[in-house]
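Reagents: none. Just compute today. Serine aminopeptidase S33 domain-containing protein.
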Amino acid sequence: MQLIIKIALALFAVYAVVAVAAFVLQRKLMYFPDAERVSPAAFNLAGASERVLTAAEGTQLISWYAPASPGKPTLLYFHGNAGNLTNRSERMRRFLAQGYGVLMLSYRGFGGSEGQPSEADNVADAALAYQALRDDGVAPEDIIVYGESIGSGVAVQLAAAHDVGGVVLDAPYTSIVDVAELSYPWLPVRPFIFDRYETLQHLPKVTAPLLILHGEEDRVIPVEMGKAVYEAANAPKDIITFPRAGHSDHHLHGSHEAMFRWIEALYDKRAKALDAYDDAPLQRQMRP
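Predicted 3D structure written out:
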């Protein structure tokens, strides 16, 4: 009996150590930055250059920026929780080939940006990037916010607080707390997570057109979460899932082309609405 008690106490002690370590190191378990600073010129991204943004307290943030062709939107892109902008260079190339502008922001600690990442800082820095586009003269309706994985939570919070032309969520989650519970079901994570990214709480304030892209074989953020985000979102909204795609490879299954078509349809609809508005006074004058 005493042996059983000793074993139980030892197991409890190990569990307690692991739980405390997970609490203390939780941001190390959430963010996996590559701090290397690389210029977009290294990837021959036509028209793109490095842009340094300065947060209110002086933190220097690295971004890649290329302006849009006339009549095209600018994608304000928030990346996932690992790597740096070099891992998104081919995505940026595809977007630029469509004539889109792109502003990709490196979170703190990623890709040459100073500091350490946190939800509060990521969301504040997203607003800084948004304002940089506005200061450049990019109209709110021409800013399409793109959130990749953990960046989907950043994108939702930005779109909830600012006017944008559209929102694209790439493998979104209901909250990081929900993702953590799936990843660590044996730990009491819910009360103790700092960076919670409560997407469903902010989503009701998002009124811009929404597109969700999700791989049905995603083992990091289950497609059921993407569907739950879709159900909770305001219209107009669309969701496209890819049966053979995982977490970060749905671009190999047509997601870029699907997004391009969605943006084109968005702009066509807007143009028709403007034409109808412009024709309305003439129609009123012609009435007998």
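The first strand starts at residue 32 and ends at 33.
Action item: order primers for follow-up constructs.
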